[in-house]
Amino acid sequence: RFKAVIFDLDGVITDTAHYHYLAWKELAESQGVHFDHEFNERLKGIDRMGSLDLILASAAHQRQYTPEEKLALADTKNKHYQELISTMSSKDLLPGAVEALDTVRRAGLRIGLASVSKNAFTVLERLGITDKFDYVVDAATIARGKPDPEIFLKAARELGVAPADCLGVEDAVAGVTAIKAAGMFALGIGHPFVLTEADVVITSLKEFNLAAY
Ligand code: G16
Ligand code: MG
């Protein structure tokens, strides 16, 4: 019944969340901010500057940062992150990811990628799956990150499919909200207690069953 499937990248196709965690932790601690896995959960699907704002807002010292200082901090985090992902390869694909992409392809549906990561193209290259997508949104062209529906609506438009005919796949709360706000069917990857807005929640793409949604 769907005409296209639009995938998130981090946490759905590959686990870059761990690399984001390591890079943000070092950056946060350099600013005297305590950073743990629970904090990292809140940053999933949130763009780079938005994530930095959340980290700095939780600092005990509450000092003001200039826009230049913030850009420099974001850049430091990104350089570290890029170093960490430079060794990624197809072994970093999450279980079931390639099978899910191939199932959608065989069913004749269009395939899109909606990641707010400006490193998404690099990650796809490293994973060796760039050619499996009909359209990959360039995060640099997106004005409002998730939970705003902009990125999913752009993917649908470029794929030439109405939002109501799209299935969106997300692991983050902000991402599921974005899919629903776009008027799409939301498949959550994770836990139903967390992804309460999703239409269906599965544990990983290993359980992906296109005919069931
Ligand atoms: C991903 C991650 C976020 C990260 C964002 C921006 O979003 O989940 O934690 O902050 O990308 O990444 P970058 O700093 O590489 O531009 P998504 O939409 O892929 O889940
Ligand atoms: Mg994600």
Automatic annotation (TrEMBL):
One of its GO terms (molecular function) is beta-phosphoglucomutase activity. Pfam families: Hydrolase. It is an enzyme of class 5 (isomerase). The lineage of its organism: Bacteria, Pseudomonadati, Pseudomonadota, Betaproteobacteria, Burkholderiales. The keyword Lipid metabolism does not apply. The keyword Isomerase applies. Belongs to the HAD-like hydrolase superfamily. CbbY/CbbZ/Gph/YieH family. This is Beta-phosphoglucomutase. Its cofactor is Mg(2+). Keywords: Carbohydrate metabolism, Isomerase, Magnesium, Metal-binding, Phosphoprotein. It catalyses: beta-D-glucose 1-phosphate = beta-D-glucose 6-phosphate. The gene is pgmB. Its EC number is 5.4.2.6. It comes from Duganella dendranthematis. PANTHER family: 6-PHOSPHOGLUCONATE PHOSPHATASE, HEXITOL PHOSPHATASE B.
